Amino acid sequence: MKIGLIAMSGVRVKNPELAAMGLTLPQFVERGKVVASLPSLGLLTVAALTPEGIDVSYLEMAELPSEGSLEDFDLVGISSYTAQIDEAYALADRYRSRQTPVVLGGLHVSLMPDEASLHADAIVIGSAEETWPRLIEDFMAGDMKPRYNGAGDNVFSPGLYAKPRFDLLKGRSYNRLTVQTSRGCPRECEFCASSNRISPRFQQKPIAQVIAEIETAKNTLQHPFFELADDNSFLDKGWSRNFLKAVAPLNIHWFTECDISVADDLDLLDLLAKSGCKQILIGLESPMPGALHSIDPRGWKQRCQGRYLEAIERIQSRGITVNGCFVLGLDADTPETFPALRDFIRKSGLLEVQLTVLTPFPNTPLYERLKREGRLLAERYWERCTLFDVNFQPKNM
Question: 74, 198, 220, 257: most buried, per Cβ within 10 A?
Fold first, then answer.
């Protein structure tokens, strides 16, 4: 039996003026190349969950011919960003027209299962742990179901966890490798479309598992730069200290995303600097008064806003750069927000900045609210979920 796992990556902005500037994804002009060179950790995990004795191939969408013949598989699994989901559907339809069964999974599929079902023989909703082995067993018995609901809790427990198949990446030109240390985030920001939408609670991976994954991944590429595929690293400060002590001897360089609370623990910051961490991305969202009101259900980010400058200085003084992430188009934003944000960034001393447009991803609380308020420019605009294309009517612009 032969299974093909196909990843979609390399999102491009749709706005013609921004496209003409060469803009792709946040950070810098060539960000699209960086994203395209990140492997799909989800599909590498699916490969690891596949029972022994089955031949598994990992492919990127860019490796496939745009028309004509496709590589033969007994079963195809496809995962995609929202912005490329229509391309994923088109590829699925091509395989199904050849009588090849297709399974679709990933965050968008979990948020829009009825839509995805129109292009697949089966869909996986939620996590692949527990679900994928059961799906394969059913497929081999000729009884694959149209929907499989993934394990919600304990995905890192011994009975469900599988180390990603980093060996499938050998010989490929990736400049970064991803390792996940946790899943979910309790902040529950209105606009967030990451794994907390499919994970019922924050789940922390045991440190020994993370270190083993890093050691395995180091044998895949020479001197890889690591990126932690977490929604919010360092929420558990005790776990984080132990993790940083364990990762320091590995002599790696790495990047992750977290919230501003990392700056509250000076010992943690010192360990972070010694561990090889080169940059952290922090969702600051906005420095404007009142802009963060109700952005999360507990008002946590609003309470933190007043200490942004002190926190940035604390982190960067230890040699760790902060990529400050700001969102434009919040309900409190006006045209005056743009020069005010520029001035704040200059004052902050941030060494890198990420500016994005507020994006109502499908079935997020933000999407549902803007839909109720009649502010969506279209009900379906998935190819424009790039973080740069405007998909709604801002309140004050």
Answer: 257
Residues 363, 111: contact at Cβ < 8 Å? yes
109 pLDDT exceeds 60?
yes
Burial 200-227 (b: 16+ CB within 10 A, else e): eebbbbebebbbebbebbbebbeebebb
- pTM of the predicted structure, to 2 decimals: 0.92
* Cα angle 151, 135, 51; round to 5: 95
Per-residue pLDDT tens for 203-262? 999 999 999 999 999 988 777 899 999 999 999 999 999 999 999 999 999 999 999 999
Rg (CA), the chain: 21
C-alpha to C-alpha distance for 15 and 322, rounded to whole angstroms: 28
Give 282's strand partners: 258, 324
DSSP letters spanning 255-291: EEEE-GGGGG-HHHHHHHHHTTEEEEEEEEE--STTT
Give the integer Cα–Cα distance in Å for 26 and 154: 33
19 vs 116: CA distance, rounded Å: 28
User: What is the C-alpha separation between 323 and 229, in angstroms, rounded?
Assistant: 16
Specify the range with the lowest mean pLDDT, choosing from 9-13, 124-128, 137-141, 207-211. 9-13
pLDDT tens readout for residues 65-78 = 877 789 999 999 99
